[in-house]
Design brief:
By secondary structure, this protein is an all-alpha fold. The protein is 67% helix and 0% strand.
């Protein structure tokens, strides 16, 4: 397996420049993972498949879904891609490389774990600030246009928010100067996580059922359903910041009430 990855990587660095891989390659990888993981949830919602796992009963109209996709393509090409290109010199300065040898899995996993923890911390405070009155009204309300989120709404946001919260995603790699393959893995995992958090479905196989402190769709869907001043649940991937600062109390209370209701219903049956 390792030799296959190394052979594929050798092909990439032989045929493409560092800039092409770091900017255009990263952009292509992001778009592929994002849309391939997010579009199926539009299909599920339109077809009504697996509806028993849908968190909210309300569906988005096809027009609303199409608006989201159109805006996303505009933002990705006009904001994300230029940002990737502009940040390339910074990452190079901080030590990012694409050459062989590839880093060990121990190094990769350690760095990615660090990125998740740091991103959660930075994202929490940035997200919480965006829920102050002025910033919510003028910036963050764009993201909350979809009270019933679906996978692709995860990146539907005001350009200023893309830059603001995007910092949380890149600060870890900017500090450590990782190998490009580590950066790509981090990007893929982060995209899959945020799409899942906005997918609108809570499945028996959802990661939040098995991984402690993992937020997931049910956790973040609660955030979208409530008024901006009362929502809480500001965390990104892991919810330790909400737990520490008590901003998930409403959500935890709701879960307790639901569990109590299920227990009573089970006893009556």
């Amino acid at each position: 397996m390792a030799s296959m990855i190394e052979s594929a990587w050798t092909y990439l660095i032989t045929n493409f420049s560092d800039f092409q891989l770091a900017c255009l390659g990263s952009f292509f990888l992001h778009e592929s993972v994002f849309f391939l993981s997010g579009l199926p949830f539009i299909l599920l919602e339109r077809a009504g498949w697996l509806s028993k796992y849908k968190i909210q009963t309300k569906n988005n109209s096809p027009a609303a879904q199409e608006k989201c996709i159109t805006r996303l393509l505009l933002y990705h090409f006009c904001v994300n891609l230029p940002l990737m290109m502009a940040s390339y010199p910074v990452f190079r300065l901080m030590g990012m490389r694409s050459t062989l040898p590839l880093p060990s899995w121990k190094v990769i996993s350690t760095q990615v774990f660090f990125y998740f923890i740091l991103e959660d911390f930075v994202f929490y405070w940035g997200h919480r600030i965006l829920h102050t009155k002025w910033l919510y009204k003028h910036v963050h309300s764009v993201h909350h246009e979809y009270a019933t989120p679906f996978g692709l709404t995860s990146e539907y946001a005001h350009p200023a928010e893309i830059l603001f919260l995007g910092f949380a995603t890149i600060v870890g790699p900017a500090i450590t100067g990782p190998h490009l393959i580590t950066l790509w893995l981090w990007m893929v995992l982060r995209v899959l996580e945020t799409v899942e958090a906005h997918c609108g479905y809570h499945f028996p196989w959802s990661l939040s059922n098995f991984l402690p402190l993992y937020g997931g769709a049910d956790f973040h869907d609660y955030h979208h359903r409530l008024l901006y001043t009362k929502s809480g649940n500001y965390s990104s991937t892991f919810v330790y910041m909400d737990w520490l600062f008590g901003t998930d109390k409403g959500y935890r209370r709701l879960k307790e009430l639901k569990n109590d209701a299920c227990e009573i219903e089970g006893k009556e049956m």
